[in-house]
Design brief:
By secondary structure, the protein is an alpha+beta fold. Helix content is about 30%, strand content about 30%. It is built from five helices and nine strands, in the order βααββαββαβαβββ. It has a five-stranded antiparallel beta sheet with strand order 2-6-5-4-7. A four-stranded antiparallel beta sheet has the order 3-1-8-9. A hairpin with a 3-residue loop joins strand 4 and strand 5. About 35% of the residues are buried.
């Protein structure tokens, strides 16, 4: 495990409240996250291997990160962005993510997501990017990166650690939680703050964005 917040030059942001569009985890997934985190805490593996555990209420799937911070947008610009996102997201056909066990990677512990939803997710990301570009310009967001496929993390590295030890601890959880369905019913425009010293993210909701008018 290596530090998530120093993995490249711009990994740590210069200020708080960076704008993102997120899919929030549901209560069922948060309960699964808590089960794995309990073992990481109890065994002291998280502390000893510099893994910050994300508060379950803030576990999320990143649809799109913006290059802008909350203070940089006027209320009228935010209102215009929300209006366009709501209009476009109403056209999305409903789908769900099937989320499985966590996997320790180089910089984080990510929850495995069934790739069966990858195509629908890519369409969602593309629609959101189109709405952002139409209102704020294409330079208001970075290129598609890890958000091109759905992913969520239960913890982030804030220093050096052994991913193998972390993975062994996760695999020892018994009984092993099953897969969780996370319906894509609404997204949130949020202002996100990093906490690199403890390996975590928090946010405040700016607007809730319903997805799909299909029944």
């Amino acid at each position: 495990m290596q530090n998530f917040f120093t993995r490249h030059q711009t990994a740590t942001w210069p200020e708080p409240e960076r704008l993102h569009i997120y899919l929030r985890s549901n209560a069922e997934l948060q309960a699964v996250v808590e089960r794995y985190q309990e073992e990481l805490r109890r065994s002291r593996v998280a502390a000893e291997h510099h893994l910050g555990l994300q508060d379950p209420q803030f576990v999320h799937f990143t649809v799109q990160m913006l290059s802008l911070y909350r203070r940089q947008l006027s209320q009228s610009a935010l209102d215009g962005l929300v209006d366009r996102l709501e209009s476009d997201l109403a056209k999305v056909k409903p789908f769900a993510l099937s989320v499985g066990p966590p996997q320790a990677s180089v910089h984080a512990v990510e929850l495995w997501v069934d790739p069966g939803a990858d195509q629908a997710w890519a369409g969602l990301v593309g629609m959101v990017r189109g709405a952002v570009a139409a209102v704020l310009g294409a330079d208001a967001m970075p290129p598609v990166a890890s958000n091109g496929r759905p992913h969520a993390s239960l913890g982030y590295g804030y220093g050096d650690g052994d991913s193998g030890v972390i993975m062994s601890t996760l695999n020892a959880v018994s009984p092993r939680p099953g897969f969780v369905e996370v319906p894509v019913r609404e997204l949130e425009l949020v202002s996100v703050t990093q906490h690199p010293h403890r390996g975590a993210f928090t946010w405040e909701t700016v607007a809730v964005l319903p997805v799909s008018t299909f029944s």
